[in-house]
Amino acid sequence: MKAALSEASKVEIRRLMAQFPQRQSALLGALFVAQDEAGALYPEIIAEVAEVIDLPVSEVTSVASFYHLYRFSPEGRHLIQVCTNISCLLSGCDRVLRALKQRLDIEMGGTTPDGRFTLKTAECLAACETAPMMMVGPDRHGPLAPENLDEILARYG
Amino acid sequence: MSDQVPIVTLSIDGRPVTVPKGTTIWTAARGAGIDVPIFCYHDRMPPLGACRMCLVNVEKTPKLVTSCTQEAAEGMVVSTTTPDVKAGQEAILEFLLINHPLDCPICDKGGECPLQDQTFRYGPGRSRYVEVKRDFAKPVSLGPALVLDRERCILCWRCVRFGEIIAGDDALKGFERGFTSEINTPFTLPAASKFIGNTIAICPVGALTSRTYRFVSRPWDNQRVPSVCTFCGVGCAVFFDVRGNTIMRTQAREAPDLNDIWLCDLGFFGHGYVQHAERLQQPLIRKDGDLQPASWDEALDLVARKIRATAPGRVALLAGARLTNEDAYVAARVFRTVVGTPHLDHRLDTRADGPSLGVSWGMTSPIGEIPTRDLFLLVGCDLTEEYPVLWLRMKQAVDRGAAIIAITPKALEIDRFVAHHLVHDYHEGSAVLAALAQAAGGDSPKTGEVGGVDLGRIALAGEALRGAKRPMVMIGKTALEAADGETMYAEVEDLCGKFGIKPSIMRGRGNAFGAALAGLLPNTSPGGRPLAQVRGDLETVWGAPVAVEPGLSGPHIIEAAGRGELDVLYIAGADPSSDVLDRSRWAAARSRLPFLVVVDAFLTETAQAADVVLPALVIPEKNGTVSNIEGRVQRVHAAVSGPGEARGDWQILSGLAVRLGRTIAYSGWEEIFNEMKTLIPGLEVDAIVPLAAPARAVSAPGAQKSDGRETAADGEYPLALIVGDVLFDRGSMSGRSPAIADLAREPWAMLHPDDAARATVADGDPIVLTARRGSIAVMARVSKAVLPGHVYVPRGYDAAPVNAIVGAGEAVTRVRVRALVTVAGGQGNG
Amino acid sequence: MAESFLLKYIQEPDHGEVDAYVGRGGYEGLRRALGMAPAQVIEEVETSGLRGRGGAGFGTGRKWKFVPTDPAVTKYLVVNADEGEPGTFKDRTLIEGDPHRLIEGIAIGSYAIGARQAFIYLRREFHQGRAILERAIAQAYAKGYLGRNIQGSGYDLDLVMATGAGAYIAGEETALLESLEGRRAMPRLKPPFYPAVKGLYMQPTALNNVETLCHVAWILAKGHQWYRDQGSPILYSISGHVRRPGVYELPLGTTIRKGIEAADGLHSGRTFKACFPGGSSSAILPANFLDTPMDYDLAKLDVYGSMLGSAALIVMDDTTCLVEVVARTVEFYREESCGKCTPCREGTVWISQVFDRILHGAGRLEDIELLDGIARGMTGTCFCPLGESVPPAIYSTLRFFRPEYEHHIKTGSCDVKALARA
Ligand SMILES: Cc1cc2nc3c(=O)[nH]c(=O)nc-3n(C[C@H](O)[C@H](O)[C@H](O)COP(=O)(O)O)c2cc1C
Ligand code: SF4
Ligand code: FES
User: Fold this and answer.
1) Cα B813–Cα B814–Cα B816 angle in degrees, nearest 5
2) Which CATH number fits domain A78-153: 3.40.30.10, 3.30.360.10, 3.90.1150.10, 3.20.140.10?
3) Which ligand has the shortest distance to the CA of B68?
4) Ligand 1 environment, Cβ below 6 A
């Protein structure tokens, strides 16, 4: 498969570029547009983003690799990010993590065989009032207990 | 000057130090002879402050400060030796070393490694680190020239910043972050740079090393010989590091007004040919159809006999860029006086009827001024391919706000830095220039297009040109050799006239400028003055009559030979078979030439067809001087001795002269140089010696004019062929330097995605280019750098000689592209 | 205590709607500001005594005064909505619950410094916040609180949302600007790149925290005197071992004890062991500091690294293993170090490795000195405050909880209860 950006994505990237006095400012947003469409930032996809924004491929790749929310290989449909920072640690994120690994039967960073979930840890997600907490895709969930995980996961097909 | 920089006085380690305001503490300390260790700081780039090695104590400042970033201020009290500074330095070194492999004994940097040195001087002595060190996969190769050892990297960011700030090619970058940070190229692809050797030079550890130098030598075993790189016309100052009789590596020699401290990769990695096993070691004479070894006496006797047996006017000399100034001078003297022929030239790769022959090649202002100019007009000049290091100087100007206008049929690689990039239809350059001139004059239509370029963009470029105060105008080979080259040159000269300047003629490789200076031109004397004007001087110094009638220029010599008008052709360091624009002309010449002598270092295509081949030394084996594109005369020192019986050119010519009945003997290059001084005003080592006057065109008898018409873009041959020079090619020298041959890769041709699609060709596919005269097989490079309807093919690939399909009589050669159908290699069911 | 106002409406379901917001007195501050000269607006903010809520606590009015007033110079206002300091979640709360307040604050601030374009650098993970803000911004444009000729004043302001992509260091102001310019979020050299003088695109830039700008909206709406009368309220993010973690609006200088009480105290049967008074970058304080006020004077304690920071109080009771907490804190900085400077990049890894050994029963007694030594090597040598945030947790726990380290090393395991008894 040769990944390619759709015209719609390119239009969206150009719209982002138009918002800023300098086009490179659109890069972070553009990479999300590309990643959302292609599933990951494959070399061909990066080259296309670089071409649309008119930046060196090396620069685009370097920038993308700096930030943790970009990925260079595909992941599951839903990304689970379990916060393991202090407040969540104090509230028992370890138990939650263990339960998740067991239930999904994957290791940290792994993806379920059906491609549904990828499990990762995260640093403080600014929701310590609901510790221990996690995000599934764009949604926050917490406080978590091993018991309520099934019900939450069931919402994500 | 009215605006004087104010000064400040501070105290460093108890010593009062006075520096201009704006100087950093580090620089101030260094000026006072106080050493503060650094890693990330490099004086050609703005401070970064990342490594934290240069910490010093500044009184009344709560924390240590990085001396490389902090400006010196009046009354500041700095100490570089207090216990907190010591502790800071030790801490930083300890941090740097925890993940360093400490494999110094097998590291190429050993002995010239700042990390090693700083650790010795400032380190903690012993590490408290007991954990497992960071482990990267073994050294990775980043192309034919560069090897990266990530374990040794201390992340000083110098190499990354070199690519961003100095070269503008962004070749190496930082990836990931924090403790997983690494320097690399995207996806570990070969580094896309022409300047990567510099990153090896400025890497403060052994993380970036050169493929050609890896495990080759230790610095203390090398002897450094100052010399000059003569691959292109820039003539960068270099050192050849020599061990035994072998050049181990080339390094830049600091020359602030020339290459500063940089080189391009051809200079860094191109010396391999010198030691190549195929170097010619003894004279060869054609006997029974084959070239067979002979003695020097036999060979020179034969040449002398042939020359004596013919009329002087039927002998000609073509001398190339391998000659030193002294070689070229002696060649001119011997041929003009002893042989008695005016047919001598160093220019071969030009149209017989183009403007190149009528102008003096070279720059009209010094390289050192480039960084101070505010606008550059590049006409048909592919700077990074032809004069790469000049780009590094131009980039400095661009960083200060200078604009570049480029008029070119193939987009320049420095695209991002070209403010007005006017990529045009190949045969329409003069129309674009005319429109630009009109726009610069303040009136121009803003809509529509000319030569494939939008008029609105030309209008903007014109505005920029009009506002320029200190412009520099360069016209290059691509423009001068185009069908409309004459018009383009006239337009450019006109434009320049408005600024009271002269265009720089960006033509000539190697020591072409030295050849011109020394008099290897059919119509000028050494120094460039017309023969008639200096005849008296010449005859006094040379002790023989000198004819003032202009002789034939290079392309005309070839044509004359092709008409059977020459009997002997002596070629020294030139290879017309690959250098002439139209190879069929050379083939015709060769077939009708009774006697051909080739003096060269390799058995080139031309040499293979010679009657006598004489083995010559190359520049790194010679003493003397060379001149560069700005006219700077520089000294070269023999770094190694040549192979076998190979000789220097002027020595060969002396030997020939004796056999022709005249003694022209010199004790060494100095004597020749001193003689040249009497004829060339201002000649000195390190001086810039411009040619006295442009060698105006002389119309030679029987010159073949191009018919001016172009073959129509018919369905059969739809694409216009653009031929250009590239930095990495596979010519007789570069092709024999392994790293350069690898960088050059296979012969290639560049075409626009639309044309590629039409021919169902993808990037990297093998293709065949066919013109009326023949075909060559190359690799497709699909790129928008050329406009639709064009194909760009580089010269210099012996395996796919583009001059074999060009017809010099054609204004534009047209070609078609077909995918090369390969027979399935027996795998699968095809 | 004066009535709470910062959080007053955040529970109202319609508060993100411009009409509801205006109905409750919203955009009055902007209207008032537009009637004043920009310099007067800055004066108003300065006399209110407002200090930045992003962590550094610099006077907001003073900061704005550094921005050159030359109208010919393009200036920008940038909102730091990258909230990432562990234990901090007040900015997210404000974005989701009071988006128009933030927009109003942005408009006022931009007007004050003469910016015609403002950017919100929003943490990528704030998906809900992004949707809410986008909607609110669209409404504000529609109602003439943003865009051309705002409320007939002749002042134009364009507000653009930018995104983060997962990097705590992007919260540091100069790293944020790099990121906003589409580059790796690596801090810039100061000097010369102070944002107020050389900020976004090298133009003068005011960079402010979300909460800070919400305060500005209130100050302009009600006047600096009213604001001072409220007792300089501040949002404390209180989390960890408390019964009701959350954002609390309390007067500046509330003691740690009072803060814990506001969050409903500890869980029953537990006793207080330690806390971070100002997010994970601050020192860890034991029980004898319970009556210390959480204000900018914290730094005056003789405990290295004590500070208010982003006012994130993380409470730890007697079940907490502090060796584990510090180890996790250092790991956080290790993960988030940008890698530009040597001490932060290498020091965080090394310290983490030592902690790893200790936690896995392979510690050595000399490791205690080693930890202190590595921390010393990082102190005062890092490029930016991120690396300098590592030593406080180490120094303070080595000082107050040394036996816990020793126990870990000697027994190869943690016995929090035994330690509590000892
Ligand atoms: C490592 C680091 C992370 C930071 N993260 C944030 C942040 O997430 N949000 C924030 O407002 N300020 C953060 N800051 C503080 C900012 O640098 C800056 O001081 C602040 O945004 C200025 O706004 P204020 O004056 O309104 O407080 C951080 C600082 C550092 C050193
Ligand atoms: S302290 Fe250094 S490595 Fe750490 S975040 Fe700051 S600049 Fe980056
Ligand atoms: S040399 Fe000064 S910080 Fe690197």
Assistant:
1) 145
2) 3.40.30.10
3) 3
4) C 52-56, 58, 60, 63, 80, 82-85, 169, 171-173, 207-209, 212, 384-386
